[in-house]
Amino acid sequence: MMTTFDDREKAFENKFAHDADLLFKITARRNKLVGQWAAEKMGLTPEETTAYATSVVQADFEEAGDEDVIRKLLGDLTSAGIDVDDAMIRAALEDKMVEARRQFIEPA
């Protein structure tokens, strides 16, 4: 009887770990996509776009939540003379999260 409960507990732990890993990957993909979106607005070259998208992904490791990414995007876009506000960036994050989820769910 104890084995059944142990097996169930292990299955729940495995599912939780899998779900957390998947969310991490989807969020990183979202950050890359929103970095590409911002780079396009700033008129960056393909090489600069790749580097910038990577920097947006890395910015997410500064603190929990999206505020670090929002702060980076808002600062960079504003410095580049792009008329953007917090709400526009949050909307872009939402749009890119949908796209990132789709990329992980749909086969290539």
Produce a short descriptive summary.
81% of the residues lie in helices and 0% in strands.
What topology emerges from the helices and strands here?
Layout: H1 2-42, H2 46-59, H3 67-79, H4 86-105
Keywords for this structure?
single chain, 108 residues, mainly alpha, 0% strand, ATPase_inh_sub_z, ATPase_inh_sub_z_sf, DUF1476 domain-containing protein
Question: What does this entry look like structurally?
Answer:
The protein has one domain (30-105). Helix 1 packs across helix 2 (46-59) and helix 1 packs across helix 4. The protein is elongated. The mean pLDDT is 92. It has helices at 2-42, 46-59, 67-79, 86-105. By secondary structure, the protein is mainly α. It is 81% helix and 0% strand. Pfam families: ATPaseInh_sub_z. It comes from Sphingorhabdus rigui.
Strand content: under 5%
Mean pLDDT: 92
Q: Give the total of domains.
A: 1
What would you report as the Rg, rounded to the nearest angstrom? Answer: 18 Å
- Please tell me what the overall shape is: elongated
Q: Please, how many helices?
A: 4
For the terminal residues, how far apart are their CA atoms?
43 Å
